[in-house]
Q: What sequence folds into this?
């Protein structure tokens, strides 16, 4: 489990394209400290498994479905990525419960800068709209954020200077894709309420 509190802004150092997958090498001194084969690291919100690691770099294999359902397929050498290790048992839940299972992708629509923060508007796939509510939680490229406004096909988030400086959202421009993971609690509630209605109808 992750919390959406980014530990490090890493970088893609190599990409090997395979027939039905890809292998990425990524630099991240913080997240590779003490890393072992088989450990999990979230890359732009996608939970990946460490295959190899050396010094401050690690490699991870990404299957075709993940490349198609997330924005990882657009990564190239030099791309900056958000990195987070799983939270340890008993650790602080600084953001919200993040699984590292991307539900879909959105696109940065526009940015509105102010003196102390920035409002970013992101497109929202129709199938995810019911899970995103104002003042609720959403994960964007692995970052735990609070929704400011939730529309039918978009939502906005307000970014503080720290988020702008230390994550990919400080670099994203209009038209850039982002990974989205909605609040898992909302999906469980929907399933349970639906099951309850089915039982009542019997």
A:
């Amino acid at each position: 489990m992750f919390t959406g509190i980014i530990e490090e802004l890493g970088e893609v150092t190599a990409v090997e394209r395979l027939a039905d997958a890809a292998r990425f090498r990524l630099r991240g001194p913080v997240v590779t400290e003490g890393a072992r084969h088989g450990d999990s690291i979230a890359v732009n919100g996608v939970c990946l498994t460490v295959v190899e690691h050396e010094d401050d770099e690690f490699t991870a294999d990404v299957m075709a479905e993940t490349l198609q359902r997330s924005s990882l397929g657009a990564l190239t050498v030099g791309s900056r990525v958000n990195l987070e290790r799983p939270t340890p048992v008993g650790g602080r839940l600084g953001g919200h419960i993040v699984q590292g299972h991307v539900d879909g992708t959105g696109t940065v629509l526009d940015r509105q800068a102010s003196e102390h923060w920035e409002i970013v508007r992101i497109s929202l796939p129709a199938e995810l709209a019911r899970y995103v509510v104002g003042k609720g939680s959403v994960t964007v490229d692995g970052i735990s954020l609070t929704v400011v406004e939730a529309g039918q096909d978009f939502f906005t988030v307000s970014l503080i200077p720290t988020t702008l400086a230390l994550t990919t959202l400080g670099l994203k421009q209009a038209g850039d894709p982002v990974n989205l993971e909605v609040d898992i609690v909302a999906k469980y509630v929907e399933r349970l309420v639906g099951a309850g209605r089915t039982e009542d109808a019997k």
